[in-house]
Amino acid sequence: MASTLKIPSPLRRFTNGQASLDVNGKNVEEVLNELFSEYPDIKNHLMEDDGNLRNFVNIFINSENIRQKGGLSTLVDDGSDIRIIPSIAGGNSELTQEELIRYSRHLSLPEVGVSGQKKIKASKVLVIGVGGLGSPVSLYLAAAGVGTMGLVDFDVVDESNLQRQVLFGVDQKNKSKLESATERLKNLNPHTKYILHKVALSSENALDIIKDYDIVIDGTDNFPTRYLVNDACVLLGKPNVYGSIYRFDGQVSIFNYDKGPCYRCLYPAPPPPGLVPSCAEGGVLGVLPGIIGTLQANEALKIILNIGDLMVNRFLLFDALSMEFNELKITKDENCVVCGSNPSITKLIDYKQFCGILNDDNKQEDFDEITVQELNDRFNNGKTFTVLDVREIHEVQIAKIKGTIHIPMKEVYNRINELNLNEEIIVHCKSGKRSAKICKLLIENNFINVKNLKGGIIAWSKEIDSSISVY
Known about the structure:
- The chain has 471 residues and is of the alpha/beta class.
- It has three domains: 3-86, Beta-grasp domain (Ubiquitin-like (UB roll)), CATH 3.10.20; 97-354, Rossmann fold; 368-463, Oxidized Rhodanese, domain 1.
- It contains 17 helices and 18 strands.
- Strand 9, helix 9 (223-236) and strand 10 (240-246) form a beta-alpha-beta unit.
């Protein structure tokens, strides 16, 4: 006589929706092997690499916890009731009377109903970055009733955020983004539990942060963190709801889910540093992250509810100027270095180095840096030198250091004859990254007295002239 293994709802996405399985194993280990044989994708969510049961998973046989008995060797009698009980940080998934009223528009949908709303309440979603994409994602998932929402960010709110980061208001400038976001989200839905991770996601902390969540939503804005999120999700078996924005274009997909591809299957390696401008350099239409972030939230809810056609093996492109959506078909690369049949990456790496970005402590440049205090002294001493501003014209219109000349970064090479080879040249941009590239360019073209302004115009505003806007 077979026993019955019950699958909890958060794990049924790995069992094609099956809530139970007839098993014949004589002990727990044999029972689990039967489960893994039929549904291999569930194994990583239950077992450690060393073959032990994960700490946040319990198994009960006839209402008794096997951890208090023989562990995986615990015998299973015929006809036993075996249940997998993972931890659920969202607490009681039963809906209160207030919640029944709050989510009534969900409950009236046959695809959601009370059971679906309970799934949403039991879910744990991690939003990495609460900026342009993270704002609409977190607002709509909180409103939908996600039980536990983790937020990762370490930045503060500044004036330039308010054009698109709708979580924040003018009274929150210079305040922590996480604390400001939580104020807004708790006001929107106090029933959700908010867990704040006020850190920069890194190879040292990513696995510990991500492991306790069901779904990860990528709201990052740089390549090192994007590859880090992807690899961590693959190693932990977590779905990665991807979104990206730049100028008027957006992208959406779901990576590492239901045997689909990961981000590296599509983009095995990042572009060289500086080839693809950031949103700070190239700009972004304020409404665009609202569109893309809302689509990400939509896909996350579909994963939780196990409904609809997910963006797995699909890559959505949106052009706000032409108001066009286009879809590409993407497939898993069996030779992928992280999710392929024989992955060469089995642990997190140095993602800044992978993306060609040297750590400040290790970089060795052919040019010197100068602080804003030192530059201010130079101005006051009347020495002869040139300060070259390589930002874009729209940035100069927002903020400018008096006494500088302006040549946009992309025009410097063709206008290099406007600069004096024999004069000291101090190059600046917004933060010091673009200006460092121009310093290298000048050195390669026989300029010998070149310095980079450390911290750029942001440091100048903070330490020398607070009347200059920080953007």
